[in-house]
Amino acid sequence: MRTLVDLALAPEHRRGHGALYGGLNNGRLDVARLRRTLAGLPLPKAADGRLVLAADVSPWLRPDAATAPDRSFCHTYGRCEGKHQMIPGWPYSVIAALETGRTSWTAPLDAIRLEPGADIAAVTTAQIHDLVERLVAAGQWTDGDPYVLIVLDAGYDAPRIAHLLEGLPVEILGRMRSDRVLRRPTPSRVYDPKGGRPPKHGGEFVFGDPDTWGTEQAVTVTDTRLYGKATARAWDRLHPRLTKRAAWLDYDGPLPLIEGTVIRLRVEHLPRGGENKPVWLWWSRTDATTADIDRCWQSFLKGTKPRRTGKEGVSADG
């Protein structure tokens, strides 16, 4: 017997369904062994043989389970009047391998229930670290293979996660809010007769101010079925200016410069109308080629959940 249904239908199984599930509830699951088994299964890969993983938080809403332990307020959209709401439930951090092509199939590899007040970035970083180590141990990645691409939505601090995962064969691709301000590379030191400490950061790159963008490193234009022409523009070696606040409050030593590539994606139109807003992405590598740029924004659309058009710009369904 390979399934509980087969066992329940077997003539030798003389007890009812209640006994079957009662025995299951009193059993145990070797979670570590299950994780190793999932990491060893055949996994979908991109056209260049790269593993593409998507990490996101999915809630299991439990609004009526007042006695359920460790419930948190989960952000939801589209229920009742179609507004953003916070509903009690269990948030789960889920990581899945993405299929290629026009398909919504994924291969779930890991899931962790988040405790109330958990640092999502820290939990996800540890989750990704352990999963990548299992994939390497299972032979899913070897020296010489393309780095594993991790796709994150705007709820994650992509530069911080890239810094915490330094040393692993991964690339981080995350969406950024449209009101962010990044910095350019440190300018060359020029003699200043007045003295003073040389600057640590270059000029500002303001997402909402085109006058600060300067010349792009690369531009690609792709014809899409639903959105018309998709134009992606990339700027190299941009980093956030970190301060001793929030996640970096207890960081020892000088704060790091986490450089990456910023990609701005804009399409001609949305399939259902609405305001056509651009999508801003941050990739943890530099010196991006046009192939890298197309791979990044297409992987992001594949890895994010479908969302209503007109709210956050390009949707992920199609």
Structure description:
The protein contains six helices and twelve strands. It has 318 residues and is α+β, with helices and mostly antiparallel strands. The chain has one domain: Transposase Inhibitor Protein From Tn5, Chain A, domain 1 (Alpha-Beta Complex), CATH 3.90.350.10. The model is unreliable at 306-318 (pLDDT under 50). The chain has helices spanning 4-9, 17-25, 31-40, 120-137, 158-164, 290-303; strands at 52-61, 72-79, 83-98, 106-113, 148-152, 170-176, 181-183, 204-206, 218-224, 228-238, 260-267, 279-283. 20% of the residues lie in helices and 29% in strands.
Major sheet characteristics: 10 strands, mixed
> Percent of residues in beta strands?
25-35%
Global morphology: globular
Structural class: alpha+beta
Q: Which segments are poorly predicted (pLDDT under 50) over 5 or more consecutive residues?
A: 306-318
What Rg is obtained from the alpha carbons, in whole angstroms? 23 Å
CATH fourth-tier homologous superfamily: Transposase Inhibitor Protein From Tn5, Chain A, domain 1
Q: Do you know the CATH architecture? A: Alpha-Beta Complex
CATH C-level name: Alpha Beta
In total, the number of domains comes to 1
Question: How many β strands by DSSP?
Answer: 12
What fold name stands as the CATH topology?
Transposase Inhibitor Protein From Tn5, Chain A, domain 1
- Distance N terminus to C terminus? 40 Å
Q: Please write the string of helix (H) and strand (E) elements.
A: HHHEEEEHEHEEEEEEEH
Overall pLDDT level: 86
What fraction, in percent, of the residue positions are helical? 10-25%
Q: Number of helical runs?
A: 6
